[in-house]
Design brief:
This protein is an all-alpha fold. It contains nine helices and no strands. Helix 6 packs across helix 7 and helix 6 packs across helix 8.
């Protein structure tokens, strides 16, 4: 079958085959898709079609098999979804976390980045300096100024920040961000140790 003959065959057979597959699938778009896919596969075999003598039957068979395969895949997916238990609802962030995020937003970007990388991501001062491209001394100054600013903001009336409960106590760690309730309360010595890391 030449390209011109195949084009003529496609023009005459496509609507008829689509109607037949629509009756099988019950979905006109799905029927068009599988018939089109069958024609794409037939394009590579177009020279053999004349010898076969029943090109429309071949395309109908391929399209039917494609439709059944898609239906089986959809059914397996649906069974998998039904067997998979829904994820437990994760509670939202606690008031301490919300207050900390609100306080961090009040800091200049450079200080906020240094605080987050150092205290929440547990990077050393040298690693923060490498990641931000700032000298180590500048990172230490940003950390010192950022902690002082956070202490001031967190000791203010928390209603000004988020409307949450007073959050001067526990500070979320890198492990507790996104996991409300697991917090640690750093002592003065711990902050001092973090400054010289």
């Amino acid at each position: 079958m030449t390209e011109e003959e195949f084009d003529a065959f496609y023009a005459s057979a496509f609507p008829r085959l689509t109607g037949q597959l629509y009756a099988l699938t019950g979905d006109h778009g799905e029927a068009q898709d599988v018939v089109q896919e069958a024609f794409v596969r037939a394009w590579d075999r177009r020279r053999e079609f004349l010898a076969d003598g029943a090109p429309e039957a071949w395309i109908r068979t391929v399209a039917t098999r494609l439709a059944v395969s898609r239906w089986r895949r959809a059914r397996r997916w649906l069974e998998l979804v039904r067997r998979t238990a829904p994820a437990d609802h994760a509670p939202g962030p606690g008031p301490e976390h919300a207050a900390l995020v609100a306080a961090l937003r009040t800091l200049p970007e450079a200080q906020r980045m240094a605080i987050v990388l150092h205290h929440l991501c547990d990077l050393s001062v040298e690693q923060v300096a490498s990641e931000t491209g700032a000298p180590v001394g500048t990172v230490k100054a940003r950390l010192s100024r950022g902690r002082a600013a956070l202490a001031r903001v967190l000791s203010e009336d928390p209603a000004d920040l988020t409307g949450a409960a007073r959050a001067t106590g526990p500070v979320p760690t890198a492990d507790s961000v996104g996991a409300p309730g697991s917090v640690r309360t750093p002592g003065k010595g711990e902050w001092e140790d973090n400054r010289v890391r």
